Amino acid sequence: MSHTILLVQPTKRPEGRTYADYESVNECMEGVCKMYEEHLKRMNPNSPSITYDISQLFDFIDDLADLSCLVDFLGFLDYHWGQARTCCLTKDSCGKFAFPWNI
């Protein structure tokens, strides 16, 4: 497990900055998906169910002013700046996230 901190700034306004703390990169990526799903619920309050694909998630991420992941590998903090795409966010059919490296 790699302790991970997600830093989010939804708009250009710095007072909107927030963070979330996770026990692993996978949990952090699930948190990004949950953040998007909460956004969809707010935008579609009368819809009983909402579906989306990965390209819509990436568009949401692109529209954020900033999204950064700080990942601690074996006690050394490795900075992963930029969009969650940097973490190669993809969901397989089992609902797990696939990464090109072994974490």
TrEMBL record:
Belongs to the E(R) family. It comes from Lynx canadensis (Canada lynx). This is Enhancer of rudimentary homolog. PROSITE patterns: ER. SUPFAM superfamilies: ERH-like (SSF143875). May have a role in the cell cycle. Pfam families: ER. Gene3D superfamilies: Enhancer of rudimentary (3.30.2260.10). The lineage of its organism: Eukaryota, Metazoa, Chordata, Craniata, Vertebrata. Coiled coil: none annotated.
